[in-house]
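Regression test case RT-17, inverse folding.

Input:
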C-alpha cells in the first residue's frame, strides 16, 4: 500500500477512481493506494455487498459487477456520476477454477472477461472521463500480464486476451488522447494474490519464474499499485498507449 513507500507520495485528493475487481489481490492493493492518497474510490466485486467479504472494505463505495455480463457492466457504469481514473482489473484465470481454456466456450469466456469486458467498461465511462479536470488528464489503466508477451501454455484464452489488451491500449491511447483521456497498461509479473496462491505454493511452478527474475522474488500488490499511481499522475502526462512491465526484471532476463 501507499504507506509502504519510503520516499514517494501521491496526492489524488478529490479524484474519482473506479477499480474493478478491487476486493482482493492486485485490485485491492491499487484501491488502497488511491484511498490512502485521498481519492474517492469505488471498487467492484462479484458478491452482493461489501459485508459479504472477510476483508475490511471500509472507505470504499462498493458495486456488484459480473465482468462477463454486458448488462452488469452497463449497470455499474450507470451508477458512476463522475470519473477521473478507471483501473480495469476484474477477472481471473479460468484454469485456476478448474476450467480448460482450450475448450472453445471457455476460451471465449476468457477473452470476454479480460478484453471485451474491460473495453466495454472503458467505453461506457468515456464521456465522464473526458470531462475530468485531473492534472495530466483522465486515465484508463489495463492490467496486462506476462502472458501478454510469452506463450503460457495453460492459459490460451487468458493469454490471447492479455495480448489483445496491449494492442487495445495502443489504439485507445491514440484515439482517446484527443479527448483528454490517457490509456496505458501495467503488465504484472507473478504477483501474490488469491489467483496465484496455488502457483506460488508449488515450487515446481514458481521456482522457474523466480529463478529467471533478477530481483529473485514475486511481486506484491503494492508493486503494481505504484506503477498505476505513477501512470495516472501528472508526472506521466506525456505517456500514452504504453504497457509497462512490472515484473522484477523477468521480461529482460535471458
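Golden output:
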Amino acid at each position: 500500500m501507499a504507506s509502504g513507500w519510503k520516499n514517494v507520495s501521491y496526492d489524488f485528493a478529490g479524484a474519482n477512481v473506479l477499480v474493478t475487481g478491487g476486493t482482493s489481490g492486485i485490485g485491492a492493493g491499487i484501491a488502497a493506494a488511491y484511498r490512502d492518497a485521498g481519492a474517492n474510490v469505488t471498487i467492484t466485486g462479484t458478491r452482493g455487498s461489501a459485508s459479504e467479504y472477510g476483508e475490511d472494505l471500509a472507505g470504499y463505495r462498493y458495486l456488484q459487477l459480473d465482468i462477463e455480463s454486458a448488462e452488469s457492466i452497463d449497470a455499474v457504469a450507470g451508477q458512476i456520476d463522475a470519473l477521473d481514473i478507471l483501473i480495469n482489473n476484474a477477472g481471473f484465470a479460468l484454469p485456476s477454477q478448474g476450467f480448460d481454456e482450450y475448450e472453445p466456450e471457455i476460451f471465449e469466456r476468457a477473452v470476454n472477461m479480460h478484453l471485451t469486458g474491460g473495453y466495454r467498461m472503458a467505453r461506457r465511462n468515456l464521456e465522464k472521463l473526458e470531462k475530468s479536470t485531473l492534472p495530466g488528464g483522465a486515465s484508463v489503466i489495463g492490467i496486462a500480464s506476462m502472458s501478454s508477451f510469452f506463450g503460457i501454455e495453460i492459459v490460451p484464452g487468458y493469454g490471447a486476451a492479455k495480448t489483445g489488451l496491449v494492442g487495445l491500449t495502443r489504439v485507445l491511447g491514440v484515439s482517446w488522447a484527443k479527448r483528454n483521456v490517457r490509456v496505458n497498461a501495467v503488465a504484472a509479473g507473478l504477483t501474490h494474490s488469491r489467483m496465484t496462491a496455488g502457483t506460488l505454493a508449488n515450487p515446481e511452478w514458481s521456482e522457474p519464474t523466480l529463478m529467471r527474475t533478477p530481483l529473485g522474488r514475486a511481486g506484491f500488490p503494492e508493486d503494481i499499485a505504484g506503477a498505476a499511481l505513477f501512470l495516472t499522475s501528472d508526472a506521466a502526462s506525456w505517456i500514452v498507449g504504453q504497457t509497462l512491465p512490472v515484473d522484477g526484471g523477468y521480461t529482460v532476463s535471458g
